[in-house]
Amino acid sequence: MSLKNPENAIRNQYANQGVEGYYREHGSDYTNPHFDQVRQLLIQNRQRIDYQSILDFSCGSGEVSQVIQELGYALPTASDPFTSAAYHEKFKQRCLDYSFQDVIKGQLEGQFSAIICSFAMHLCPPKDLFPLVFQLFQHTSRLVIITPHKRPELSKLSRVDLDFEDFCLTARGKKVRLRTYAATF
Ligand SMILES: C[S@@+](CC[C@H](N)C(=O)[O-])C[C@H]1O[C@@H](n2cnc3c(N)ncnc32)[C@H](O)[C@@H]1O
Questions:
Q1: Which of 17, 71, 79, 147 lies most in the core, judged by the most C-beta atoms within 10 Å?
Q2: By alpha-carbon position, which residue is closest to atom 25 of ligand 1?
Q3: Longest C-alpha distance within the chain, in Å?
Q4: What was the pLDDT predicted at 29?
Q5: What stretch of H or E contains 131?
């Protein structure tokens, strides 16, 4: 992956292999080039988000889990359909393997103080966003999205409200945003 523009490099890979094909092949060696921004956002919002019992949804190599643990909390519950083996190897803790579709089918179990989905929900097809978010809100009252994009545009969904937003900048001056949502389902 090019270090000069990692976003373009990954976009090209998605175009060549498809999102699922890419993560099926590279899931075990994925790392987030914007980990510093993920960390900064989680730390600077620690008073506003309850990290007691979170779900690190589409956890990748555990970027969110790592920061939560560094902040002194227990390792979160984590889930990812393509990186669960790598997560288990790194943290020695079981990683669930729910895909967006599994969650939409109602397979997720448990209640969480917050569900944090970092750099991943933009990968969910727009038509599936509402059913996905509806299901996630059956398991938490706070959904936290970390994203370098405008997507996923959850505020456009009926009965999903932006609670607050924060951002920090990459070295190239690009915004990485943390958005917290609540729902009135
Ligand atoms: C860019 S990575 C982000 C990983 C990590 N959360 C982070 O902040 O770096 C996107 C993640 O979405 C996961 N993913 C891809 N397709 C998915 C799907 N259909 N359902 C759930 N997760 C998926 C990938 O396995 C990958 O770990």
A1: 79
A2: 82
A3: 43
A4: 83
A5: helix 126-136
Q: The tokens of 132 are what?
A: 């996905």
- Please check whether residue 141 is in contact with residue 182, taking contact to mean a CB–CB distance below 8 angstroms: yes
**Residue, of 95 and 21, whose pLDDT is higher:** 95
Residues forming a β-bridge with 146: 118, 178
Fold of 32-183: Rossmann fold (3.40.50)
**Is the minimum distance from the CB of 100 to ligand 1 under 6 angstroms?**
yes
pTM for the full model?
Answer: 0.94
Q: Is the CB–ligand 1 distance for residue 65 below 6 Å?
A: no
CA of 184 to the centre of ligand 1 (A): 26
Closest atom of ligand 1 to 60 CA is 27
Atom number of ligand 1 nearest to Cα 119: 3
User: Helix 19-26 vs helix 6-17: angle between axes, to the nearest 10 degrees?
Assistant: 110
109 alpha carbon – ligand 1 mean position (Å): 19
pLDDT at residue 120 in the model: 97
Task: Look up residue 49 and give its amino acid.
Answer: I
Strands (E), 18-159: 54-57, 77-79, 114-118, 143-147
Of 64, 63, 39, 44, which is closest to residue 54 (Cα–Cα)? 64
